[in-house]
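Recall from the previous chapter that SMILES is a line notation for molecules. Here it describes magnesium ion.
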Amino acid sequence: MKLKDLAGILPVEGIVPADMEVSGVSSDSRQVRPGDLFVAVAGSKADGASFAADAQKRGAAAIVAARGAALGALSIPVIATDEPRRALALLAARFFSRQPETMVAVTGTSGKTSVAAFTRQIWEHAGLASASIGTTGVVAPGRNDYGSLTTPDPVALHRLLTELAEAGVTHAAMEASSHGLDQSRLDGVRLVAGGFTNLGRDHMDYHPTVEDYHRAKLRLFDTLLPKGAPAVIFADDRWSEPTIAAARAAGLKVLTVGRQGDFLRLKRVEHERFRQRAEIEADGVIHEIDLPLAGDFQIYNALVAAGLAIATGTPSSAALGALEKLGGAPGRLELVGTTGNGAPVYVDYAHKPDALENVLASVRPFTTGRVIVVFGCGGDRDRGKRPIMGEIATRLADVAIVTDDNPRSEVPEEIRSEILAAAPGAIEIGDRRMAIAEAIAMLHAGDTLIVAGKGHEEGQTVGSQTFPFSDHEEVRRALKEHAA
Ligand SMILES: CC(=O)N[C@H]1[C@@H](OP(=O)(O)OP(=O)(O)OC[C@H]2O[C@@H](n3ccc(=O)[nH]c3=O)[C@H](O)[C@@H]2O)O[C@H](CO)[C@@H](O)[C@@H]1O[C@H](C)C(=O)N[C@@H](C)C(=O)N[C@H](CCC(=O)O)C(=O)O
Ligand SMILES: Nc1ncnc2c1ncn2[C@@H]1O[C@H](COP(=O)(O)OP(=O)(O)OP(=O)(O)O)[C@@H](O)[C@H]1O
Ligand SMILES: N[C@H](CCC[C@H](N)C(=O)O)C(=O)O
Ligand SMILES: [Mg+2]
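With both inputs in hand, we obtain:
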């Protein structure tokens, strides 16, 4: 591609040779190949500008950087931009160029992974070649890659979207994290609809205030979606109203779902042990749905997913009918097994206050004995949530076991003691494997165990090392040993 072909994305002006060939784009100097454009972005740990010389050494054709960035002496052209991250995303979209035709994104504090997985499943039932992209990875026909970032960085994302489109995928649902939205990782994705689940405390280490966090989420609605696009918004959350108002102000077509929803109205829910029956009204017609998943919140997620599928062309009866066959996303209130006396053991990804509160409350209706929870808090992440989660666990569970969850560079005992400060009576077992085994050994008939915080994760990060670790495997092992 020639530099001049990028006009419209970047102001190609002045001394920049417009006829210059550029072969790719990268924001990481270590990955620059000869002929690439290097985009210098300011990050949380480093400033990409300081790697411009490194990028030049590796053969970069030109540098894209913020106006006035301190790049040092360079012999290759420099293109100035006001928003390097946005430029990176738009350039990545331009270089890779292909995307599934129908792309939707969902944002919110909790439920994004579930909604993306559910939307993909509904489309699949309608016979469409579909993908989901997010925390648990990429799922598409013939493909199931383990995930890392919730919203991949733009270059990885557009490489992936092109691969999916080339493989015939026409529909894709992706998660829009607040980091991803704030860092413009989704700019350049041709989205046709957006979804919102809820807003609670999260990432207070990154966003200065909850309002700032909400504003980051709103970028999906006020910046990324084209005018007139459907915005499917869960109506029963305390942040629904301002989200609806922002979506309306941005000229979107607001479709609300939930008990207070107009587009899909939840009329009634009846819990049965591991499943629930819901009455949902769509367009004046009542649909009786037997959802094979536990947890009220899964109904809310299912409503957002059905709303997105309907908004992108799936008939309501097919979308709502598909909910009867939904599989939960891995590690989201996932029933991993039961003890010999019938007590269920769930692995769940609740690692923030609202999620923990929800998950503990949602197993209570079918627990005749005790609710037992094993959980911890990650190191190098929002410290403020620790006592809040300690309080929630002791209030809503009968037995709370505080353990380690990716201590990263922090001292595990200190993380635990910050949780325990607000969790009187909680049991402390640092070793996560032992904590799970102890909890399973405690289970009587009628009890429910939730192992929270790691969900689908396959490792435990201590210091800078990640050891293989899976809550699923530990639960299975302990159940087997307990039965023996
Ligand atoms: C805080 C954060 O979001 N960081 C992300 C961000 O990195 P950064 O811009 O801060 O990077 P940096 O290390 O300061 O470096 C600045 C720039 O210099 C470049 N560099 C650096 C070194 C070098 O030798 N050469 C070079 O060019 C880097 O490539 C980067 O472009 O941009 C990178 C590329 O997109 C991400 O990989 C990185 O995610 C880190 C790994 C991360 O852990 N992110 C988490 C917090 C995250 O994004 N989570 C969200 C939400 C999860 C949820 O929903 O709960 C997610 O979407 O996953
Ligand atoms: N709608 C919801 N309301 C409240 N809690 C929820 C909801 N959906 C899921 N949860 C809780 O949050 C956990 C994570 O769910 P999910 O992975 O779907 O959300 P997410 O938004 O993708 O989270 P993350 O940002 O951590 O990737 C679940 O395991 C469950 O405990
Ligand atoms: N995307 C989230 C995942 C947290 C999962 C939890 N197990 C932890 O390590 O804190 C984060 O990076 O903040
Ligand atoms: Mg997620």
